[in-house]
Amino acid sequence: MPAADGSPGLYDAWINLPYLPGEVVPDPSVVARFKRGNSAYEGGETMTDVIAEMDRLGIASGVLSKAPRDITPPYVHGTKTGELVLRETCERLAGIAGDYPGRFVTSVGIDPRLGYEAAKHVRIAVREYGIRCFRIIPMFTGIAIDDKLAYPLYTAACDEGAVVSINVGVPGPMKPAKLQRTILIDEVALAFPELKIVMSHLGDPWISETVAMLLKHPNVFAMTAGWAPKYIPEDILRFAERRNPTKLMWASDYPILPLDRTAVEGRSVPLTGASLAGYLGGNARAVFGDPA
């Protein structure tokens, strides 16, 4: 759906499915880091509210994501797992995508620790529910980006033509950071050169590694989810402006950051021409595709 002025409109590479009231417990470390009280967890906002805000801000479409998990102590995995969890989540996502045609590509979190069973979950999600992206969040799974247990999942996603989105950098929740070090993307991208890999959160404090992965691998991209656009590191912006305009994607990470702030600041980042157009939507459309 184009914006009111006839332009393609923004494409948000990461919109979290609104929480149902009482669905999750606030994570104190995330609440403190983003200074939004408990609003990211309280629930109460509906998809009707989200669509209205998207329309107001000229956000044409986006990737609607749900990664079932719990808040747990630092060294206890937090990913909810199993086929029943997968199907319940996919049904919810597919239902919303069907209710709002042309607005959402859908993305679901899968537990890579399941090995070959995770590969079966990928096929179920793609073939039965139309899921196009799989979210890997190492801080919640307890295994690193390049752990061999995750390779069946990567293989299945590659075979199905799906995208894999992987959290990189120090996490907000009190979880180990080394599982998400950006350089761990390297061997996965080498092993699966046809798999589209989107790094989420930019990989702070390993920003130079993020840029290196974007430069080295044609199949690796990055989204600015979790970053207020005015704070995007200069090295990332310099890469997008001077080296490759096709790799960087705008993402709100709603409701962790609000749609209005990220949309306004996103349009004001110091990028020009193809770099700005790609960042605001063109690059995400090229990777995730237009919603059905």
From TrEMBL:
GO terms for molecular function: carboxy-lyase activity; hydrolase activity. Keywords: Lyase. InterPro entries: ACMSD, Amidohydro-rel, Metal_Hydrolase. SUPFAM superfamilies: Metallo-dependent hydrolases. Residues 87-289 form the Amidohydrolase-related domain. This is Amidohydrolase-related domain-containing protein. It comes from Mycolicibacterium anyangense. The lineage of its organism: Bacteria, Bacillati, Actinomycetota, Actinomycetes, Mycobacteriales.
